[in-house]
Design a protein that fits this description.
138 residues, mainly alpha, 2 domains, two-stranded antiparallel ribbon, 5 helices, 71% helix, elongated
């Protein structure tokens, strides 16, 4: 690699020659290719993607640890099977639904403390109806 340094009274300027730029571009392309090869050969872990990630998303939302949602989304993409190509989005959707369910139940219990049994019944009935709907679609 050839790098020319021009000295001036105030600072040093590094002038990149075409060879330096070409070497840098080649190194970047090699690293990007390695990353893409690693992503293509990743081993699917459907249980982690479809169970652990939604549970983690629920815990993140309830605990208000919003920064963890981005890594969990990346884990869903990394671990999801690649039969259809959008399994990772299904895992994230499950996380959104379960987080919404947990937060709605917690706020309902807080808003109606005297009607605890009615809140608990409707909260559990909502998940039973969702499970029945999912069973019908299969």
């Amino acid at each position: 690699m050839t790098v020319h340094v021009r000295k001036t009274s105030r600072s040093h300027h590094v002038v990149a020659t075409p060879r330096v730029i070409g070497d840098f571009a080649r190194i970047c392309a090699d690293r990007c290719g390695d990353l893409l090869d690693g992503a293509a050969s990743r081993k699917p872990r459907p249980h982690l993607a479809n169970i652990a990630v939604p549970l983690g998303m629920t815990a993140s939302v309830v605990g208000q640890q919003w920064w963890t949602l981005i890594p969990l989304g990346l884990f869903a993409w990394w671990w999801a099977p690649r039969d259809w190509g959008w399994e990772w989005a299904v895992a994230i959707g499950r996380g959104i639904i379960s987080a919404e369910w947990a937060v709605t139940g917690a706020y309902a219990l807080q808003a109606f403390p005297d009607a605890r049994s009615a809140v608990e019944t409707s909260w559990l009935l909502s998940v039973v109806l969702l499970a029945a709907y999912a069973k019908v679609l299969r």
